[in-house]
Fold this sequence. Notes:
- The strands form 3 sheets. Strands 3, 5, 6, 7, 8, 15 and 16 form a 7-stranded mixed sheet that branches.
- The protein is an alpha/beta fold and 329 residues long.
- The longest helix is centred in the middle third of the chain and has 21 residues, at 119-139.
- Strand 15 (295-300), helix 9 (304-313) and strand 16 (319-323) form a beta-alpha-beta unit.
- 30% of the residues lie in helices and 26% in strands.
- The chain has 2 domains: 2-113 and 294-327, Medium-chain alcohol dehydrogenases, catalytic domain (Quinone Oxidoreductase, Chain A, domain 1, Alpha-Beta Complex); 132-267, Rossmann fold, CATH 3.40.50.720.
- It is built from 9 helices and 16 strands.
- The radius of gyration is 20 Å and the shape is globular.
- The two termini are 15 Å apart.
- It has helices at residues 41-48, 119-139, 156-167, 179-188, 201-208, 225-231, 252-257, 272-287, 304-313, and strands at 2-6, 16-19, 29-39, 59-60, 64-72, 84-87, 102-106, 110-112, 147-150, 171-176, 192-195, 213-218, 232-240, 261-264, 295-300, 319-323.
Amino acid sequence: MKAAYIKQTGDPDVIQIGDLDDPMIGPGQVMIRNHAVSVNPIDTYVRSGVVAFDLPDPFIVGCDSAGVVEAVADDVDSFRVGDRVWCTNQGLLGRQGTFAERIAVDADWCFPLPDQVDFETAAANALVGVTAHLGLFRSASLEPGETVLVIGGTGGVGSMVVQMAKAAGATVITTAGSQQKAERATALGADHVIDYSKQAIDQATKQYAAHGIDVFWETRRDPDFDMAVDLLAPRGRMVLMAGRDARPEFPVGPFYVKECSLHGFVMFKARPLEMRRCADDMNRWMAAGKLQANIAQTLPLAEAAQAHRLQASGDVGGKIVLTIQQARV
């Protein structure tokens, strides 16, 4: 089978496109014939070695995929051959990745794909959607009628947070750095969009949410806790999903007096049942057209290295999806 893989960590040029043996399914696994995969920032961190795991040799890159079940282990009764499925959380914690014509995946990490949803949408939404869902509902316990501020509402995760918060009945405020991105955020369902090239985020937010923000979703690598705590409502929650090396100052007094809480998490440490709860909601929203894929570019699998270069550039404006033509039936 064709696959995009590495023999050692390094820059995008270490990614090779070549033939590898088809995987063998083990107990509890299914074989997926891929139709689409997508690129995430964590993929580039693992490939470069910035995030270090013990990797198989060769290591197939990638976390997300969508395709059709081609084989099922004898002890799996949740899927059948021919089922349309999607998965994420592969290529992490030593698991083999997804950028190949066929992958063997534990059935616990695999989710049914509604007929109304195309493979590209499912692959694009997989990791970022699960991340958004875990942060909003498991960590921040978002309730209908609350107000959410999303920093960067057109990014991979940010676009999912905007749509999910809206689908859950929240008022959504988000930020964008250009008129084009502001229009995209509005199209995704944001109630208010702050163009931070023209407005100060804190001042504009106070105009839209005079009583404060219930959930502040931070995507920047250097969080501004002073601004966040000032904007949070009493018992407001702040969600962190970035900033591995950040060491910002923190306003302890105002934070605890407001009875606020701070939530940091990474999706790849979620349990299978937690991810399945995310997938159930995502499938319902995708089938109903309430969870759109924010796809910026679509490339063939053979351009996996270029996809990693684009992702690392930080100027993608959405998700990069790779299609696997050989997998089409």
